[in-house]
Amino acid sequence: MEYSPPPLFKQGPSALARLIFFVLVALALLISDARFRTLEIVRGVLGAGLYPLQRAALVPRDFFMGAADLAVTSATLRGENEKLRTRNLQLSQQANQAAQLDAENAHLRNLLQLSQRMTTQSIPAEIQYDTRDPFTQKVVIGRGSQQGIRDGSPVVNEDGVIGQVTRVFPMQSEVTLLTDKDQAVPVQIVRTGLRSVIYGTPKGDALDLRFVPISADVLAGDELVTSGLDGIYPPGLPVAKVVRVDKQADTAFARVICQPVAPVRGARDLLVLHYENNVPPRPADEPDPAAAAKEAKKKNAKTQDKGKPGEKDAKSAPTAAASAPAAAAAKPAAPAAASSARPAGKVSTEKKPAAEKSAKPQAAQGANQGAKQ
């Protein structure tokens, strides 16, 4: 009777053979999927079939995370609501004061018969992305010349100045931020009225108020607003706040470090202003007195050079006229024709003795040499 193991305990290929087979199958599937994307459909079907199971397994986690987010969100919303109420109250007070100041300003202007110089329009815009150059502080907004954006327009938000439009495209515009090293804004200190120019820094994290004398009254905490003297920025826009003032004895100007009031890098929604300063054009520059005197001297010298030939002729004419009467007095019996030709003859007679005198010594010298020979 032959012995054979029951079907349940039958052994197939060896374990090593099965390992090698499955390793080869796995490698073949990996290579085919990486090269030819053969398992994309299978992967999609498996993912769609297992998605309900995944969602069911994640329900407890989502429940606890949602409860925690709800608690945190409620607390955050309460805090933000309190801040917004406080901010709204402050803005309402400032609006009331601004309305009162506008009415007073209009009354004074009418009293003094002054015209309104400032007309400002605004266009809302949104930042799309930063520029590719990491060494510049520039962003691109989703408004361009088709929407009325113009080159050089100031860009602000609810807190203050953000930057200035430097390049305009049909559907987009490039804005140079306030902290860029090449950006300059004329400003004025609110407390003292001192005017200067504020620049960005190479690092882009602060502002530098330049051309401030050491004797100027500048303190930490002073607010800076646009002066409006350049005709680009409207006057009174908040720009920065003084952080530190360094005064050194070996320099004529103090170093004033400022911080922007508006979140330059954190702003998302902006306003592009169209500021028109209705000021009469600047009068033409007067000529320099020294330059005018030099030009007058040059013109006089040219006229004198042109008049010199005539003066020579005029001077030679009186001498000829004076020589003619002298010749006429020396020979009164000569005919009129001879008297008219007498000046030339006189010149020839004057030259003749000189020639004879020069010829006589030469002849005497020649005779003496012949005698010696």
TrEMBL record:
Coiled-coil blocks: 81-111
Output a single Gene Ontology CC term carried by this record: plasma membrane
Membrane-traversing stretches = 12-31
Q: Where is the signal peptide?
A: none
Q: Which keywords label this protein?
A: Cell shape, Coiled coil, Membrane, Transmembrane, Transmembrane helix
According to the UniProt record, where is the region Disordered? 278-373
Q: Which Gene Ontology biological process is one annotated for this entry?
A: regulation of cell shape
The residue ranges flagged as biased composition, category Basic and acidic residues, are 302-315, 348-359
Domain of life per record: Bacteria
List where Low complexity composition bias occurs.
316-344, 360-373
| Domain Rod shape-determining protein MreC beta-barrel core per the UniProt entry, residue ranges | 130-273
List, alphabetically, the PANTHER family matched: CELL SHAPE-DETERMINING PROTEIN MREC
What family classification does the UniProt entry report for this protein? Answer: Belongs to the MreC family.
What name has this protein been given in UniProt?
Cell shape-determining protein MreC
| Name of the coding gene | mreC
